[in-house]
Write a structure and sequence with these properties.
The protein is α+β, with helices and mostly antiparallel strands and about 230 residues long. It has one domain: Nucleotidyltransferase, domain 5 (2-Layer Sandwich), CATH 3.30.420. Helices cover about 35% and strands about 10% of the residues. The protein is built from nine helices and four strands; from the N terminus they run ααβββαβαααααα. It has a four-stranded mixed beta sheet with strand order 3-2-1-4. Helix 3 packs parallel to helix 9. The radius of gyration is 31 Å and the shape is globular.
């Protein structure tokens, strides 16, 4: 038997070298997103023969400097981290990049981060259908859950103890998100398009009765086998 030597990062399932080679050959600046149980870290890097150069980097702890009081790894936090990274990268002269997740999965939080990068004005190719719903990005689902839990004070205080300690009421999550988003981007949120109302179903039109087919006319021609008189 022959021994086939594999690279350590392949053995540890850390690097997909096919994707990595495509990034290097294309000479694209690329974005990496790492979401842990408590934080999110986003980087814009440029590949070089001697290693990757960090163009811009954002850790969710930096959001506190922007006034953020919410969770540091929620969907809103991931979006804001991506938005801040996009602004930093453009300030360094980088206006486009690609997403590189390597062996990781494209989760909802990664998608929220990419949505923030795209909304910053940085060109990053990704389909709109991949992004989470706008209400979830703003934390509306958190506010709805808080309002539903508010009747039980013990459960409410226990579930949202970290937010309340920071001085943020969970039911005010969307308004707080918009405040920080505006501080980072300097742009007001675009008004939501009103949902189209479904038209009432029209009563089915009665089908016109087809006129009965005319009976085939009798063939007046004499049969071929008939004898002539």
């Amino acid at each position: 038997m022959t021994y086939v030597r594999t690279l350590k990062r392949i053995r540890l399932d850390k690097t997909n070298y096919r994707k990595r080679a495509a990034v290097i050959i294309g000479r694209h600046s690329f974005v990496t997103v790492k979401v842990t149980d408590q934080n999110v870290a986003v980087q814009m890097l440029k590949p070089t023969p001697t290693g990757d150069l960090v163009i811009a980097s954002v850790h969710s702890h930096e959001l506190a400097k922007q006034g953020w009081k919410g969770s540091s790894n929620s969907l809103p936090a991931c979006y804001l981290a991506g938005l801040l990274l996009g602004k930093k990268a453009q300030a360094k002269g980088t206006n486009k990049g690609i997403l590189y997740i390597g062996k990781d999965h494209f989760t909802t939080r990664v998608a929220a981060c990419v949505k923030g990068i795209a909304d910053s004005g940085l060109n990053i190719p990704v389909g709109e259908e991949s992004f989470p719903d706008g209400d979830r990005i703003s934390g509306q689902h958190i506010a709805d859950y808080a309002n539903a839990l508010k009747a039980d004070k013990d459960a409410y205080n226990s579930r949202f103890s970290a937010l309340l300690k920071n001085g943020l009421k969970p039911e005010e999550y969307p308004a707080h998100f918009e405040e920080v988003r505006f501080k980072i981007s300097g742009k007001a949120a675009e008004p939501k398009a009103p949902k189209k109302e479904k038209k009432a179903e029209e009563p089915a039109k009665e089908k016109k009765q087809k006129a009965p087919k005319r009976e085939a006319k009798e063939d007046k021609r004499p049969d071929k086998g008939a004898k002539k008189k």
